[in-house]
Amino acid sequence: MLKSFPFEVSLADKQSIILPEAPIADFVKKNYKRIKVLASFEDKTIEFYAALKREKSGQYRIYFSKAKQKALGIFVNDYFELQVFEDTSKYGVEMSEELEAVLLSDYDAYTVFEKLTPGRQRSIIYAISRYKSPQMRVDKALIFTENLKRGITDQKLWLKKH
User: What domains lie within the chain, and their CATH numbers?
Assistant: First the structure.
């Protein structure tokens, strides 16, 4: 598995990080679009998936949300450590156990889900994963699969009962 050495970064703006060239050179050379990231600051560590975005300037940037900043305990001028890894996940993000179980129990919904674009798949995975309660994730996954089988294509309606 491809991985970088740990390197130091800071926020480039309110919600992103510009990655230095050297640690990500192999990822760029192999044309990776998504990466797994391990971020550390003081005694805290978080792991997440990110899109490796190339800017017109040639620099690479990743999105680093306020929620991730809060979880790590960093502020605008703090320097913290990152290490990036090859994304070996199927969808570019970890799927919750609840959504996976519901999809595995409903072949028709699973088939339709697999035909969605990778971005739409990630959107649904994120939408269901944001619920804290496992029961709520199950409930939303069931609503989603029913709506998917009905042919509802509007993402805003995927998690609503009809």
Answer: 7-86 (2.40.30.100), 97-157 (no CATH)
Distance CA 124, CA 32 (A): 22
pLDDT cut 70: percent of the chain above it: 100
Q: Mean pLDDT across the stretch 5-25?
A: 95
Tokens of 160: 């609503």
- Is the predicted pLDDT of residue 153 greater than 80, yes or no? no
Q: Which residues contact 158 (CB under 8 A, 6 or more apart)?
A: 124, 127, 143, 144, 147, 148, 152
Neighbour count for residue 22 (Cβ, 10 Å): 10
Average pLDDT over the chain reads 93
Answer whether 0.90 is exceeded by the pTM. no
Residue among 134, 1, 114 nearest 124 (CA): 114
Q: Angle at CA 52, nearest 5°, toward 49 and 56?
A: 155
